[in-house]
């Protein structure tokens, strides 16, 4: 079923659709290793719950630690994708209605269209398709 973009924009504008599941690594004092473990646990939980995608807030590295987590996460996500642990991933700059990966996720679960970072071109987030 195709997404009616006007309906989704309307619903998002009026805050009718719920945001997606999010792990915020900026709010804790995570080491790189601990952050990767937390992401892996969230992926496993999302699989059990039947969740289509999760958002990881890692920052874009302007304060040091976020950059180290971002680099390690990108490397780990590539490994997880190659092994089949996750379906796909992409970065916040692609989290919009014009990107085919984002559209694919939205077609699987329209409820995440209301995510506050949708259309923000945010380099400090990563979307993981489960």
Written description of the protein model:
- The chain is an alpha+beta fold and 130 residues long.
- The protein has one domain (5-129): Ribosomal Protein S8, Chain: A, domain 1, CATH 3.30.1370.110.
- 42% of the residues lie in helices and 14% in strands.
- The chain has helices at 5-13, 32-49, 65-83, 100-108, and strands at 21-24, 53-57, 88-91, 125-129.
- The chain has a four-stranded mixed beta sheet with strand order 1-2-4-3, with helices on one face.
- α2 (32-49) crosses α3 (65-83).
- The radius of gyration is 14 Å and the shape is globular.
- The protein starts with a helix and ends with a strand.
Which key features would you list for this structure?
14% strand; globular
């Amino acid at each position: 079923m195709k997404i009616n973009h006007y309906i989704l924009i309307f619903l998002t504008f009026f805050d009718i659709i719920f945001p997606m599941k999010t792990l915020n690594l900026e709010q804790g004092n995570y080491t790189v290793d601990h952050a990767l473990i937390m992401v892996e646990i969230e992926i496993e939980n999302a699989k059990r719950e039947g969740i289509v995608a999760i958002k990881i807030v890692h920052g874009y590295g302007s304060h040091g630690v976020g950059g180290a987590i971002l680099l390690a996460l990108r490397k780990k996500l590539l490994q997880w994708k190659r092994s089949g642990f996750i379906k796909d991933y992409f970065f916040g700059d692609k989290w919009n209605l014009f990107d085919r990966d984002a559209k694919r996720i939205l077609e699987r679960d329209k409820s995440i269209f209301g995510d506050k970072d949708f259309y923000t071109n945010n380099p400090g987030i990563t979307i993981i398709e489960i």
